[in-house]
Write a structure and sequence with these properties.
The chain is an all-alpha fold. It contains eight helices and no strands. The chain has helices spanning 2-11, 22-29, 34-53, 58-67, 76-97, 103-129, 131-171, 179-216. Residues 1-5 and 14-31 have low confidence and may be disordered.
Length: 217
C-alpha cells in the first residue's frame, strides 16, 4: 500500500503555481524608481538654471541684493518663517502629486524646477558679485537647500509608489485589493514626519543663516 501511494504521488504531475498578475507586481518593482528619477530631474534642471542665471537681468540683480543683504537676516523668526514656508510648499507639492495617476511626471517636473531655481540663484550671485559672494551664499543657505532636497526626495519615494498604483488602476490591470489604501496611509504618515523634519531643518537653517550673516555681511 505504501509503495503504491508513493508511486501515485510520483506519477501525479505537479500543478503550476499561479503567478501574480502583472499589474499587482508592478508597484513593488517600480517603488524604488521615483527617487532616482526625481534626483536625475533635479540634476538635469540645475545646469539649465545656471544658463538662465548667467543671462543676468534686473530680476537677477534684485534677487542677489535680497540674498546678500544683511537686513534679510536681522530677525531669526522672520528667517525661520521664510525658510519653513518654502520647504512646506515643496513637501505639499510632492504630497499632492502622489494622489495623481500621472504624478510621476509631475514629481519630475517639480524637482527639475527646483534644480532650475537653485542653479539660477547660484549663477546670478556669481555673475553679479563674484566668487566671494557665491561662497557667502553657500554658507548662508546651502544647509537649508540640501536638507530640504533630501527630505523631499525621501517623501517622493512614497508618493511615487502611490501614483504608480493609481496609474495601473486607471490604465492597466490594477493593483491588489487594499494596496492603494495602504500606500495612501503610508504617504500621509510620511508627509507628517517630513513636515516635522522640515520644521527642524528650518530652525537649524535659520540659526546658521543669522549667524553667518552677522559674521560675513
Amino acid at each position: 500500500m505504501r509503495t503504491a501511494s508513493r508511486n501515485s504521488r510520483r506519477l501525479t504531475p505537479a500543478l503550476p503555481r499561479p503567478r501574480p498578475a502583472a499589474g499587482h507586481a508592478a508597484p513593488r518593482r517600480k517603488q524604488g524608481v521615483a527617487r532616482p528619477l526625481c534626483a536625475a530631474a533635479f540634476l538635469a534642471g540645475y545646469p539649465l538654471g545656471i544658463w538662465w542665471g548667467s543671462k543676468g537681468g534686473e530680476y537677477a540683480a534684485q534677487l542677489v541684493r535680497y540674498i546678500l543683504s544683511a537686513e534679510s537676516y536681522t530677525g531669526r523668526q522672520g528667517v525661520f518663517a521664510a525658510l519653513l514656508s518654502g520647504t512646506f510648499l515643496l513637501l505639499l507639492c510632492v504630497f499632492a502629486a502622489g494622489f495623481c495617476a500621472v504624478g510621476m511626471g509631475l514629481l519630475c517636473l517639480l524637482f527639475a524646477g527646483q534644480g532650475v531655481w537653485l542653479g539660477f540663484c547660484a549663477a546670478a550671485v556669481y555673475l553679479q558679485e563674484g566668487t566671494k559672494a557665491l561662497l557667502m551664499y553657500r554658507a548662508l543657505l546651502s544647509f537649508q537647500e540640501l536638507a530640504s532636497l533630501a527630505v523631499c526626495l525621501w517623501l517622493a519615494e512614497f508618493a511615487g509608489s502611490l501614483c504608480t498604483g493609481l496609474y495601473l488602476s486607471v490604465f492597466d490591470a490594477g493593483v491588489a485589493r487594499g494596496r492603494l489604501q495602504a500606500d495612501a496611509r503610508r504617504l500621509a504618515l510620511r508627509f507628517v514626519s517630513a513636515v516635522g523634519l522640515g520644521v527642524g531643518i528650518s530652525a537649524v537653517g535659520s540659526g546658521i543663516a543669522v549667524f553667518v550673516a552677522g559674521v560675513l555681511l
